[in-house]
Design a protein that fits this description.
Elements: H1 2-6, H2 10-26, H3 30-46, H4 52-69, H5 72-88, H6 92-109, H7 112-128, H8 132-148, H9 168-179, H10 183-186
């Protein structure tokens, strides 16, 4: 399914994901079911034709099933995908709740790299909600964690997007525009690059 998805064969990817989910559920494999629900939910909300209602339902089931077996990694993956869908649909309170859950799971697991992107996702939704000062606080926390890992925060789109979320550059540009400052946090304005 993943190969078909990355080859641009969405219909085949969805059908194989549905087949994987049927197999995992019929075999009563809870971890694999949660993973298959998450992947199919992702596909349904990110490929044409978009089926957000069905996809969100699968992502919610995935998170619930992962919670039942104590799989924090899968809980994070499922709520991350839910938050991204909610953000894209303009459900900012829902996205905020999902990304806060992601941050909690990352902190519980000690997954600092994932925590950075949970913080950036929180900043992104807060920017959309018009809460730029709060967004800046989350972005600052993400930058601090990145620096502690020996990674400088990205301020341009030249690098690849991280697989866990959006590139930080557009978010940082919106923060710069809304606040009119923050160069002390991340260096020169991303627009200057």
């Amino acid at each position: 399914s993943r190969i078909h998805h990355f080859d641009g064969k969405s219909a085949e990817a969805v059908e194989l994901a549905r087949e994987a989910l049927r197999y995992a559920e019929s075999a009563e494999l809870p971890a694999q079911s949660a993973n298959a629900q998450c992947w199919l939910g992702f596909l349904l909300t990110n490929t044409e034709p978009r089926r957000e209602v069905e996809g969100l339902d699968l992502l919610q089931r995935s998170a619930s099933n992962a919670r039942a077996i104590g799989d924090r990694y899968q809980m994070n993956e499922s709520t991350l995908n839910m938050g991204n869908v909610q953000l894209s649909l303009g459900d900012f309170p829902g996205a905020l709740e999902s990304f806060e859950a992601c941050l909690h799971y990352c902190q519980e697991m000690g997954a600092t790299s994932e925590e950075i992107f949970a913080l950036l996702n929180l900043a992104a939704v807060l920017v959309e909600m018009g809460r730029a000062a709060d967004a800046l606080a989350y972005a600052d926390s993400a930058a601090t964690l990145a620096r502690a890992q020996g990674r400088a925060p990205a301020t341009s789109d030249r690098g690849r997007r991280h697989r866990r979320g959006r590139s930080p550059a557009p978010l940082l540009r919106r923060l710069h525009q809304r606040l009119g400052h923050a160069p002390q946090l991340l260096g020169p304005s991303p627009a200057a690059h």
